[in-house]
Write a structure and sequence with these properties.
By secondary structure, this protein is an alpha/beta fold. The protein is 48% helix and 12% strand. A five-stranded mixed β-sheet has the order 3-2-4-1-5, sandwiched between helices. Keywords: Membrane, Transmembrane, Transmembrane helix.
Length: 218
């Protein structure tokens, strides 16, 4: 059966520009489904699992080192607040790095309780894998690197001035930045490139103005 894929309440793609992916995997997942999860996982993903034989089987299929969480182990008589405690465990690992995937492996009953709190508008459907999106802010823009890149771009434009128009490199950089703005997960890089392009224009104008005022300085 195909794995189901949804976003949590308030985390739909149309309303939030970015979200952290939580992949909740039932121990009923077969080998093919586990391989599909493995292919979807990011390189920095963290795997949380119940310390059970079924959980170990899933983790081995994922090919990642896992963090055992005793709270994810199945219980016959769950406490009233078990769902909230499961939610706290998952969110604690998610908040530690908002730009990595979190994979949670647990028995079907635990998965159901977790999703009731983590994603109250959805329950596991036809498949043993459910994707939840937790809202997060965009990656911070590396301002220092952008400023340094702008300076370097300005110098390159001035050095190549005899053979290329001064505006060509900043314009090309600006176009690259605009393209990156619409690439998922690369918006912060697009903003950095646009800042670098703008900074290169400012630096270039200052250098040109200085050389005009002091002809022997450049």
């Amino acid at each position: 059966m195909p794995a189901s894929s949804h976003c949590a309440a308030g985390a739909t793609v149309s309303l939030v520009t970015d979200y952290q992916r939580i992949l909740v995997v039932s121990t009923r997942a077969d080998a093919a489904e586990v391989q599909r999860v493995r292919a979807r996982m990011g390189s920095s993903a963290v795997v949380l699992t119940a310390p059970t034989a079924e959980g170990k089987r899933i983790v081995q299929g994922l090919g990642r080192e896992a963090h055992p969480e005793v709270l994810l182990a199945p219980v016959r008589f769950p406490d009233v607040d078990r769902g909230h405690r499961l939610d706290e465990v998952v969110r604690r690992h998610a908040v530690a790095d908002r730009f990595r995937d979190v994979v949670v492996v647990a028995d079907p009953a635990t998965v159901t309780l977790l999703l009731r709190v983590l994603a109250p508008d959805q329950l596991p459907e036809s498949g043993p894998v459910t994707e939840v999106g937790l809202p997060r802010g965009s990656r911070p823009v590396p301002l220092v690197q952008a400023a340094l890149g702008g300076g370097g771009l300005a110098v390159a434009a001035l050095v190549l001035g005899p053979v290329l128009p001064l505006w060509l490199l900043p314009v090309l950089a600006g176009l690259v930045g605009l393209v990156l703005l619409v690439v998922p997960g690369r918006r912060h890089l697009g903003e950095a490139v646009l800042i670098a392009a703008g900074a290169s224009v400012v630096v270039g104008l200052l250098v040109i103005a200085g050389s005009a005022r002091f002809p022997g300085a450049w």
